[in-house]
Design goal:
single chain; seven-stranded mixed β-sheet
């Protein structure tokens, strides 16, 4: 009773403070500007979690864009670490001008979400229902239905106990929960959407604690329940001011998942209720770990997050263009003519890539420099990173202002924090994490006045730099990070889980093997298969999506250089791949028409790679299996196909006759195809004889 009276009195005082002349209540939002976890150390030693970039855009920008789309006018951002850096960014951010007010609540003593909520309540700024959002949420969601449902419960249904609405999202088929708070099972009343039970499956040993005599009373009012293990928490909620008051009153509640939600659901004193809203459309993911960081970056690059993609340029001052499928580039980017840019790559403004450098499946921030012959695959390079000539980086993260020396080798799943310098020729073993900054110093706790001091805010800038040259090499800067007791969670995740890393590494392994002079025959088979698969993917996607032929040529040419192949090697993969995109038909006339259209459309691509007589001859041999395959064999398309290529100047008469002359060497099937082309071959031979006769009679030489 005393607790209820105290809450009512506190709410009444807040109501009196509202502006009675205000005609329309503005929508407010609270952003938890820190992750309150140690899952991305040592990167967060020197970089605020809110400024960790996804596709070269800081996380805070995604949160602000989500709130703008929801109609939020006033934003409060609670920050505990690196407050000066975030404040400086927000002071200059164009995105903040979309709101009537953006306030940074500096709370140096906050170490948990519970403390952050108490800090917000102490400022007495929240006037009504508000949106609560984690800064690590990257989402394109419609929050309006959840907000409307929350208000309807409280206003129309007069349910003042409904103080918290969680927005959930169906998880994907490949869901992999690394941490207990991501591995959720919920029980929901399908009629009211009220949350009845909530637990982490992994934390409970994958046993439901919903069953038992002590829990029966929870379900008396819920004859029907939905128990779901296919939902993820989006990090976004709709709250009423009472939620803040509950945190203030329950001063020992620190975490939403462990304290607040179970505490409200199972309390014998509190009558408050938590409801759920399942967003069935849109995109949502969290970036609270390295694995999530890598996954969400690739989602953005591959356009699963549309319209949150680089070339839409929704955020800050980005100026990206979609150069060709899978590659985004900002202004003032310098690419050497012999550099190779692969798929799934983002290149920030002012970056320079030197001759013979290979960059693929990687994101480069602004001002990056990639030296001659360097290999960067599956990597995330933040702003102003320098990679020396001949260096090799695979599946790693390199933060702002870091330097990787010439001929250095940075292994899989390495994390190089801000300001680290790796000397030339040094090899960094896989799964190593390097940093310069020390762990931020402990700051004031809850018994502080909550405002901190200038010394507190700047304490993280007074860290001692420690260098271990055994790790980073002579002249390098930095040391190997070792986890403290409260940082063990960071060891549970890397950028790439094993299966994902294997997929990303395919092209990298192929490049490395192709350049090895000592490989045997079995090793040669690996890169050949990888080369064919890469070219097939480029061509099939290009044909199906109608990509500009010049862009396809550029991509295939990059793979040619990477694997040390010839133009003919490319043509022998490209032409059959194009033919395989055709849909089978029972009509020979339709099949012939489709082939003619395909060759006419992609003539530019074919002529660029089937350049000489030998390449054209080998390409014709390469398309024989398709012509003889099920669904096409009955149409006898070899002669129409070759004739169409001859008419479009893809194949010369000399190449066609050479192909026919070697049919016997290739086998019986080739001989049959040659016989099908007899009419065309006779015509070409007669035309050649007449041309020679005319030339001789006129007295001109053959040249």
């Amino acid at each position: 009773v005393r607790r209820s009276e105290r809450l009512v009195n506190k709410m009444s005082s807040k109501v009196k403070k509202t502006n009675k002349d205000e005609e329309k209540e503005i929508l407010q939002a609270v952003v938890l500007g820190d992750s309150f976890s140690k899952r991305m150390v040592p990167v967060t030693y020197s970089l605020p979690h809110a400024l960790i970039p996804v596709a070269n855009v800081p996380l805070i920008e995604y949160a602000l864009e989500l709130l703008v789309s929801a109609g939020v006018a006033q934003v409060f951002i609670v920050v505990a670490e690196h407050t000066a850096a975030l404040q400086q960014y927000l002071d200059n951010a164009e995105s903040c001008k979309q709101f009537t007010e953006v306030n940074v609540i500096v709370a140096p003593g906050c170490k948990t979400p519970g403390q952050a909520m108490r800090e917000v309540d102490s400022r007495d700024k929240i006037r009504g229902d508000f949106i609560l959002c984690n800064v690590d949420t990257v989402a394109h969601l419609d929050i309006a239905p959840a907000l409307a449902a929350h208000k309807r419960r409280r206003e129309e249904e007069k349910n003042k106990d409904a103080i918290f609405t969680m927005i959930l999202r169906p998880s994907g088929a490949q869901r992999q929960a690394l941490y207990p708070d991501e591995d959720l099972v919920v029980a929901v009343d399908p009629a009211t959407k009220r949350l009845v039970h909530y637990q982490s499956m992994s934390a409970k040993g994958f046993a439901m604690d919903i069953i038992g005599p002590d829990n029966v009373h929870r379900f008396d009012a819920h004859p029907t329940l939905q128990i779901r293990y296919d939902l993820d928490f989006t990090g976004v909620c709709v709250c009423s001011p009472e939620a803040l008051l509950v945190f203030t009153d329950e001063f020992d509640w620190q975490d939403f998942h462990k304290d607040f939600i179970p505490g409200v659901l199972y309390s014998e004193i509190l009558s408050y209720q938590i409801h759920t809203h399942v967003a069935t459309s849109g995109y949502c993911a969290r970036v609270s770990s390295f694995a999530q960081f890598a996954s969400v970056n690739m989602d953005v690059v591959r356009r699963w997050t549309y319209p949150l993609v680089p070339d839409v340029n929704l955020f800050c001052d980005t100026r990206y263009t979609y150069v060709h499928p899978g590659v985004y580039k900002e202004d003032n980017v310098s690419l050497a003519q012999s550099s190779i840019i692969g798929l799934d790559t983002v290149i920030g403004a002012g970056s320079r890539i030197a001759d013979k450098a290979l960059v693929s499946s990687s994101l480069l921030g602004r001002g990056c420099v990639i030296g001659e012959g360097a290999i960067v695959e599956g990597c995330f390079l933040l702003n102003d990173v320098q990679v020396g000539a001949g260096a090799v980086l695979r599946n790693c993260m390199v933060c702002h202002n870091a330097v990787i020396g010439a001929q250095a080798d940075v292994g899989n799943n390495c994390v190089v924090a801000c300001g680290v310098s790796v000397a030339a020729g040094v090899t960094i073993k896989p799964n190593t994490r390097l940093c310069v900054a020390e762990k931020p110093k402990e700051e004031a706790g809850d018994d502080d006045d909550g405002f901190g001091s200038e010394d507190d805010e700047d304490s993280d800038q007074q860290n001692i730099v420690i260098t271990n040259e055994k790790i980073v090499g002579a002249g390098g800067k930095g040391r190997q990070w070792e986890a403290n007791d409260d940082e063990k969670g960071a060891l549970m995740n890397g950028l790439y889980p094993d299966e994902a890393m294997l997929a990303v590494n395919l092209s990298t392994a192929a490049v490395a093997t192709a350049s090895d002079d000592e490989t045997d025959d079995d090793e040669d088979a690996g890169p050949a298969m990888s080369f064919e698969k890469e070219v097939e993917d480029i061509v099939s996607r290009g044909v199906e999506e109608g990509v500009n032929p010049d862009n396809i040529c550029m991509e295939v040419n990059g793979r040619k250089f990477a694997h040390d192949k010839t133009f003919g090697d490319c043509a022998m993969v490209m032409f059959p791949t194009m033919l395989r995109t055709l849909k089978a038909t029972e009509s020979r006339k339709e099949a012939f028409a489709d082939v003619q259209k395909l060759i006419k459309t992609w003539k530019v691509v074919l002529t660029k790679f089937a350049r000489n007589t030998n390449d054209q001859k080998e390409t014709m041999a390469a398309i024989e299996p398709w012509v003889m395959s099920d669904g096409w064999k009955q149409h006898k398309l070899m002669m129409p196909l070759i004739k169409a290529c001859y008419d479009q100047d893809v194949f010369t008469d000399e190449a066609i006759l050479d192909w026919a002359a070697e049919a016997t060497d290739r086998g019986e099937e080739s001989v049959k195809l040659k016989e099908e082309c007899k009419q065309l071959l006779d015509y070409l031979e007669e035309s050649g004889s007449e041309g020679e006769s005319d030339t001789d009679d006129d007295g001109h030489d053959m040249e």
